[in-house]
Amino acid sequence: MAAVTVPGSRRATGVGALARKEALWFYVLISPWIAGFILFSGGPTIASAYLSLTHNDPVNWPPTWVGLLNYDVMFRDRLFWKSLQVTTYYTVLSVPLSVGFATFLALVLNEKLPGMAAWRTIYYLPSIVTGVPVALMWNWIFQPQFGLVNGLLYDLGVPSSMLPKWLSDPQWAVPTFVIMSLWQFGGPMLIYLASIQGVPTQLYESAQLDGASKLRQIWHITLPSISPVIFFNGILAIISSFQVFTNAFVITQGGPNYATYFMVFMIYQNAFTYISNMGYADALAWVLFIIMLVFTAMAFRLQRHWVFYEAVVR
Amino acid sequence: MTVVVSSTEKRPVMPTARSLGQELPFFRRRNVREGIWIGSLTALVTFGSLLLLFPVYFMIVTSLKTQGASFLLPMKWFPGIQYVPQWENYGEALRFMKWQTAYTNTMVVAVLSMAGDVVSAVLVAYGFARFRAPGKNLLFGLVLSTLMVPQIVRLVPEYLGFSRLGMSNTFWPLILPAWFGSAYNIFLLRQFFTTIPIEMDQSAQIDGAGPMRVLWDVLLPQIRPALAVVLIGSFTYNWNDFFRPLIYINSPSLRTAALSLSSFQAVYGGTPFHLLMAASLVNIIPLVVLFFTLQRYFIQGIVVTGVKG
Q1: pLDDT attached to residue A153
Q2: Does domain B97-298 bear CATH number 3.40.50.2300?
Q3: Distance from B197 to chain A by nearest Cα, in Å?
Q4: One domain, residues A124 and A18
Q5: Same domain, A39 and A171
Q6: To probe the interface with A, which of B31, B148, B206, B243 has the most A CB atoms within 10 Å?
Q7: Within an 8 Å CB–CB cutoff, is residue A281 touching chain B?
Q8: Which of these, A169, A164, A140, lies nearest to A154 by C-alpha position?
Q9: A111, B48: Cβ pair inside 8 Å?
Q10: Regions in chain A scoring below 50 on pLDDT
Q11: Which end of chain A is more exposed for a tag (fewer CB within 10 A), N or C?
């Protein structure tokens, strides 16, 4: 394989040829993604954009063109606005909490404590137990009358009239979902742990020689150094919080009184249940996609104030 | 474990934090404060782990009860003392979910998908992190935006595509997409590549290394922790994925473990919680082992280079 920026060849071939070679390498390296984009993500997404302008379901095939009708219906659909409000509330509540929680735990678990391997495994454990069994288990734990959490609170002296009804109470349902989501911090925590390993040890050594305390080292060295990765996790937390589904599907079915009627659940209901209005579902999905894009764009705007990159080739 | 990686053989190896601590008495005087710090952190970590393990413990005690006893209140927390542990639940649960078929299928799908995820994401992330080309920023924006497309949007067109190709009810729809680079892993690895100083690439290039050599010899050793994350994350995702197998797999002989776990709900009427919990616990054992094996890559002291930060 030929070198890209060997100084000798720069003189021989000139900058233009070199840039072309570098660009060629770029496109060869990312070619799997380009193929995947056409086949598995971009292509299907564009197809669904077209379908959002049609009326279609498995029975009414091929789709009939209806223009912007689905969007018109959506903006006058009170359930859509309710769903949007519930989903945004969940995102605003869960993203800062989950990012902060995972960062904090990664910093703690990065210290050289006795039995490190065991601790890390225990803390990662919750995030590999997923899916339907866990959703059922949460439902059981938060059950208002005989659930474990309220049993514990009662034993601690909370009077039974004060006990939260958790998932049965429209006020408490979304916060309860946030608590359940905090249990799955393992993935982000792992990414932080990995990124902390990349912070050059000399930085800490010179800080120690200057007499900087442990907390100051974390604030001034560790956190700025891993800020690109905190940013990464923040973006992902936004994206995944907009797509919360399994718990709403298994536990609450969107209730009580639409308190957990999340967007993806609404899309699923419109696409795959008895209503089966896939065109409407596609329109909902596209609006959700655009809202997520707006949130992410805002995050990218803000990142230049606090994210520090060591080496970015633009 | 301290691994010292230098970008080229010619570069002098710098001392690590630990070897400095042994050499300089300055570091030893801090032992008392260090002791208090470690002690209080250990207390914190212990308390947190009890909270975390509580639901898992709940699964364990439930898995050892009879079906009738699993819902009885007040909860019985101590198998062997308060009730006789029903170890045969595990055998029954595994037989019920036809574990040989389920886990052979899951293994095939998870391992092949993981290989695809790692190889494709490394190559694409390397391209985005280190090469200049026209249209790159636009393409990276596209990568990020595909992260945001709800999976449910793409589902119907993708399903139609796989069906047309005669691939539904095979493993292809579960494995093939992994080989085309997931946006999540690309973004993750690209972020990690950008934390490595570009001078390291350049000095290897001066020594005559081509792009693939730079990737293999200089960059990959530095991002081992991130590779471990991708490996664990990909394997766990594919091991647990329920949605895609549910849509694509019909034949009982092709069922993955996640699908078989869901079968506990259907047949019995009332869900046999004790069996479901037993099977769920067995299901996470390989994931725990994998994590425990790979977690040593998260130990500090890997990256020590001659480049000034």
Answers
A1: 85
A2: no
A3: 6
A4: no
A5: no
A6: B148
A7: yes
A8: A164
A9: no
A10: 1-12, 314
A11: C
Burial class of residue A301 in the structure, from the number of CB atoms within 10 Å of its CB (0-12 exposed, 13-18 middle, 19+ buried): exposed
Q: In angstroms, what is the C-alpha Rg of chain A?
A: 25
* B194 in contact with A, Cβ within 8 Å: yes
Residue type, A203: L
Which chain A residues are within 8 Å of B223, Cβ to Cβ? 198
Residues A223 and A91 in one domain: yes
Q: Identify all chain B residues contacting A243, using CB atoms and an 8 Å cutoff.
A: 150-151
Enclosing H/E stretch for A151: helix A148-155
State whether B302 and A41 contact (CB < 8 Å).
no
- What's the pLDDT at A268? 82
User: In A63-131, which ranges are continuous DSSP H helix?
Assistant: 69-75, 78-110, 116-128
Selection from B51-55, B249-253, B267-271 with the highest mean pLDDT: B249-253
pLDDT tens, position by position, B61-118: 888 988 777 776 667 778 878 888 888 889 988 998 888 999 999 999 999 999 999 9
The domain tally of chain A equals 2
Per residue in A222-270, pLDDT (tens digit) is: 888 888 888 888 888 888 888 888 778 778 888 788 888 999 888 888 8
Q: Measured between alpha carbons, how far is B118 from B231 in angstroms, rounded to an integer?
A: 7
* A226: phi then psi, degrees, rounded to nearest 5: -95, 10
Start-to-end CA span in chain A (Å): 24
Residue with tokens 């390993």: A197
| Burial classification of residue B269, based on how many CB atoms lie within 10 Å of its CB (0-12 exposed, 13-18 middle, 19 or more buried) | exposed
Given a cut of 90, whether residue B37 has pLDDT beyond it is no
- State the pLDDT at residue A32: 94
Q: What is the 3-state secondary structure (H, E, C) of B119-146?
A: HHHHHHHHHHHHCCCCCHHHHHHHHHHH
B287 CB neighbours in chain A (<8 A) are: 128
- Burial classification of residue A45, based on how many CB atoms lie within 10 Å of its CB (0-12 exposed, 13-18 middle, 19 or more buried): buried
Can you give the pTM of this predicted structure?
0.77
Give the residue numbers spanning the domain of A145: 71-303
Query: Which residues, 6+ apart, have CB-to-CB distance to B34 below 8 Å?
Result: none
Q: How many helices and strands, by DSSP H and E, does chain A display?
A: 17, 2
Q: What is the mean pLDDT of residues B138-156?
A: 81
In a domain, A45, yes or no: yes
User: Is the pLDDT reported for residue B127 higher than 90?
Assistant: yes
